[in-house]
């Protein structure tokens, strides 16, 4: 028994997945997702306020991004795993049972991006979309790492069989357990690999940010490349019998490739458009000043809909030096 414990990773039993408190059922998976959201919001708040963002504005944005992110995550998962939810005798309410697992990261990124765009466009905020996205990067990676612990609790997200000492134990009655393999087969712990990849990514990207101060969405583009590279490998060795594929390549690998390409495009386009310091995390005319009411600060400015969301990098902007000095977080 001792040898088995030191040569493999045991999966949590069903008792870890949920417990009842009176009429309520508490799911650890959901709590871990909530914990990830909280740490991401806190870290983004710290980074955004250092760059001139109004305290509390992150909470307003979260109210848009989190619901749409969850909807996007679930929709993407159900769309790519229809046979798990739509079959003769299926309980269609399971489509909404997010606490049982099955929330796709790429779907959450799409839904969250839509929510962020809507929140940033609100007249009371007028935040720069790319400024917020840049501030979000390390918190997003940390939230994704925390969320992967939920996959571990639910005995999901594992890879091909392995004899490595860190192989993951999966019960043979798990619905994703490959047919024909003997009971006791160990698998690559993809949840652990991604946690490590994300934590390393935080360190690497923050070092890059400290040295080069990438702004205008370029830092977020770097995140997409980093995350896409990691996921393209992890998804290629993942066991997921319900996954669609195209040209023999699973859907999520294509999504990871898409993230890499999108990151490259964002960096190329934004590097071409902007060469100077980012003057503010707010659109021109909507900047927030500490000690001054946001409403008063924007009063009289009118709706600057005719102005661009960005300031031309060749145009002198008062306060650029100050903005640059406080941009590293």
Automatic annotation (TrEMBL):
Belongs to the Lgt family. It is an enzyme of class 2 (transferase). The gene is lgt. It is a multi-pass membrane protein. Pathway: Protein modification; lipoprotein biosynthesis (diacylglyceryl transfer). Catalyzes the transfer of the diacylglyceryl group from phosphatidylglycerol to the sulfhydryl group of the N-terminal cysteine of a prolipoprotein, the first step in the formation of mature lipoproteins. Residues 292-329 are annotated as: Disordered. This is Phosphatidylglycerol--prolipoprotein diacylglyceryl transferase. It comes from Gryllotalpicola daejeonensis. NCBIfam families: lgt. The lineage of its organism: Bacteria, Bacillati, Actinomycetota, Actinomycetes, Micrococcales. One of its GO terms (molecular function) is transferase activity.
């Amino acid at each position: 028994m001792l040898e088995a414990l030191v040569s493999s990773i045991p999966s949590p039993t069903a008792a870890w997945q949920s417990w009842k408190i009176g009429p309520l059922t508490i799911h650890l998976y959901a709590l871990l997702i909530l914990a990830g959201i909280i740490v991401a919001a806190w870290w983004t708040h710290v980074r955004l306020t250092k760059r001139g963002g109004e305290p509390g504005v992150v909470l307003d944005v979260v109210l848009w991004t989190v619901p749409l992110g969850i909807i996007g995550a679930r929709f993407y998962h159900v769309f790519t795993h229809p046979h798990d939810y739509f079959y003769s005798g299926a309980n269609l309410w399971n489509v909404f049972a997010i606490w049982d697992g099955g929330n796709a990261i790429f779907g959450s990124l799409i839904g969250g991006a839509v929510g962020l765009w809507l929140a940033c466009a609100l007249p009371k905020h007028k935040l720069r979309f790319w400024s917020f996205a840049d501030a979000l990067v390390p918190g997003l990676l940390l939230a994704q790492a925390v969320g992967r612990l939920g996959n571990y609790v639910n005995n999901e997200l594992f890879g091909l069989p392995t004899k490595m000492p860190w192989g993951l134990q999966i019960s043979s009655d798990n619905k994703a357990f490959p047919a024909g393999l003997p009971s006791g087969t160990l698998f690559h712990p993809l949840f652990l690999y991604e946690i490590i990849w994300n934590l390393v990514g935080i360190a690497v990207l923050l070092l890059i940010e400290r040295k080069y101060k990438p702004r205008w969405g370029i830092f977020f583009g770097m995140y997409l490349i980093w995350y896409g590279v990691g996921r393209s490998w992890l998804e290629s060795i993942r066991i997921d019998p319900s996954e669609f594929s195209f040209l023999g390549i699973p859907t999520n690998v294509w999504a990871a490739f898409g993230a890499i390409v999108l990151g490259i495009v964002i960096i190329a386009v934004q590097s071409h458009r902007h060469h100077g310091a980012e003057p503010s995390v707010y659109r021109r005319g909507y900047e927030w000043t500490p000690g001054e009411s946001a409403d008063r600060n924007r009063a009289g400015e009118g709706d600057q809909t005719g102005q661009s969301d960005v300031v031309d990098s060749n145009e002198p902007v008062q306060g650029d030096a100050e903005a640059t000095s406080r941009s590293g977080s």
